[in-house]
Amino acid sequence: MEKSKNQWSSKLGFVLASAGAAIGLGAIWKMPYVAGQSGGGAFFLIFILLTLLIGLPMLLAEYIIGRGTQKEAVTAYKILAPNAPAWSWIGKMGIIGCFLLLSFYSVVGGWIFVYSGVSVAGNIIDPAVDPGAFFGEVTGTPWVVLIGLALFTLANVAVIALGVQNGIEKANKFMMPLLFIMFFILVIRAVTLDGAMEGIKFFLYPDFSHITGESILYALGQSFFALAVGFSCLVTYSSYLKKDVSLPNSAGSVVALSLFVSFLAGLAIFPVVFAFDMEVASGPPLLFMVLPAAFSQIPFGEVFLAMFLILFLFATLTSSFSMYEIIVAAVVEKWKISRGKLTIIIGVLVFIASIPSALTYSTLADVSIFGRNIFDATDFIVSNVILPLGNLLIAIFLGYVMDKQLVKQELLQGSEMKEGYFNTFYTLMKYVVPLVILIVLGYSIIQY
């Protein structure tokens, strides 16, 4: 019974779960504000290119490693490199990275929980309420952000404790389609606002004069963040996958959905930013300032805003599920304790680790790390250091350590792709992907 509980019931379930891991804060919350700070259309174009050239192969690499071993991340690397146990640190680094990521991701999830509750009560869309000031009030009140953080953590613990089919898969099948419907409503209204064309132009017209080495690093980090690759989360997810599922088709579907949602997010956010003369480089608060302004222009806007925020909360949860799952799966494998008890323990630890980021805009506002506040510093370390490094090591592992025939077998099994597809993929993984990551990281280090 436990085995079926920890296996996807269908290809759709796996694709939606993988897409859920990708389509969350990365595509909806982070992409617009990073693009706003990094050149708009030029950044988005580089992001697309890096996602297709680097992100897609990395997604396939994690799928191959996971399904090829049918084991969670740490054990998978041990099985594939039995005479070189140090490679298992890729999986261990992924667990550490997910834990750090959850320490600020959960804070944003808590903000969304709070906004969802206030919106349901009908207290956000009000001419007398300034969206920026309201965001500052929410994030600047310690007890509010801590309650939101606790609720977000509890929601994750409840679903992860149920397992793969009964928890993660069922949640994704319900949440993801509804999110797309709400997104379309928001985009249609955003692009029809007076002044919206300037926002569309900023997002879609590439002006490379704003692009720097840092922008390219951010685009690479955003590509990894938006696909949830580099932490080996999808090694764990694909270990629950049946052998007759096409990995190329699944990866292509996930990348297409992730890019499409990133595109929708830009179309939903930037027209509103320019229509209401907001600051395009506002950073993390951007989405929370834009949404009330956008929905205030729609009949029954408060109702639609509440619905969108609840679905956005679902999307945020589907991403955090994958982060919790890699930690839970690895520790269950090693310690052999019950999944439910372990999930509670990990949830408590994540909550405690998230407190500094949660208090960044209130009690700990004066604390800085490398010139950044705690929240931004944690985000930077995870997105622009640990993620690229994790992907670099995975690429090297697949290209130089794994058995080439096993890679080929897993890539093509259940797929109609021919040997030429494998040769292209293998060349990218062995030479192009590591080189691009090294160049971007090296250039960024020189700049700093």
UniProtKB/TrEMBL annotation:
One Pfam family in the UniProt entry: SNF
Residues spanning the membrane: 12-29, 41-65, 86-113, 143-164, 176-196, 216-241, 253-276, 303-330, 342-361, 381-402, 423-446
Main localization category: membrane
Keywords attached to this entry: Membrane, Transmembrane, Transmembrane helix, Transport
Bilayer disposition of the protein: Multi-pass membrane protein
Key word Transport present: yes
InterPro entries the UniProt entry points to: Na/ntran_symport, SNS_sf, YocR/YhdH-like
Listed GO CC annotations: membrane
Protein name according to UniProt: Transporter
Protein species of origin: Lysinibacillus odysseyi 34hs-1 = NBRC 100172
Lineage start: Bacteria, Bacillati, Bacillota, Bacilli, Bacillales
